[in-house]
Amino acid sequence: MATLDDLEAQLREGLDRGIDRDIVTVYGDQLQALGDPRGELIAIDLEIEHSGATPELARRRAELVEIWLGQQQPNGAIRCGFIDLDATSAEPVAQVRLAFGGRAARFVRSVTAVGPPKLLRETIAAIAEAPRPFLSRVTLRQWSEKDAPTIGRDEAAAFARATPHLQCLEIDARRLFSDLPHPAVRRLRLSGFDAIGSLLTGKLVLPELSALDLAIHCHLATTRSAPPDELFERLGTNLPKLTTLDVSRNEPGYLDPHTLGGDTQLFPFLPKLACRGRLISLTVPPFTTPETFATMRSALAAMPELRDLAIVRVPKASRSLMTKNFARPELAIRFST
Fold first, then answer.
1. Model confidence, pTM
2. CATH number of the structural domain 72-215+228-233
3. Residues 233-251: what's their mean pLDDT?
4. Starting from the edge strand earliest in sequence, which strands make up the sheet with 187-191, in order?
5. Could you report the per-residue pLDDT of 287-297, keeping only the tens digit for each?
């Protein structure tokens, strides 16, 4: 029979995408046998998920949550013994401290923190105080920015050490990190070309990163500037497993969700991407001009491993033309609204 440690290791794999019902059922049974209130809480959550809530189940669930966490509970969702922390309230720093300074600390699965640089600096510091074995997803949105990065190299290194199983990182910011090497992150979503400064120089080391969603600008930023050309020419350096790239949010403009490209002409840079030779999947914004069609053909010619091309927000009337222009036997072309 699998030990508790074995089950926790299995749960960590893919925890950012969801909780495996079969594994968590066995895990909950073992916790109940040990007298841990999380065990019964897991059983109740699974029952509610399967058959719906009843007043009795809701009452007992509230009792178990209080037994586990006490009367002061962090803001966010509690499901199957794990916490998705929402630090976006009127007192976000207090929420972060409550979650990472109390009984819930070890079982925080995800964190969303939104606010000024001081809040995000305190959030990173709180996470870095101790190992966070189940923290698999972190979302950081910075309202404003300073001339220097909010988080320095030492603080970022401590954060990386404390989050050995972090799978997904999302950042909306300018100049949040000077550098953020991390041994485990597989998916990165950036809104802001200089959210992590070392990305600009090709020195960001993420050995497990397989998927990058990059928007050039951040709609929360108070200042705007164009990225250097070298951003794209170096994109993928020190990211050896990067095979999926999404740049579809870069239509001209500075607003979420799709027009974050500013004044940058994105398409001429695609044939120059450092990662172009190993890309398997590419998602791009819509385009219509003959020049862009020609540029896309050049880009695709430089991407011999590409198997999936997604073009978003394309009118149905234009799709057949795009398919005709870019079709090749091994390439699947998809369209989405």
1. 0.94
2. 3.80.10
3. 97
4. 76-79, 82-87, 108-115, 137-142, 168-172, 187-191, 211-215, 244-246, 281-284, 308-312, 332-336
5. 989 999 999 99
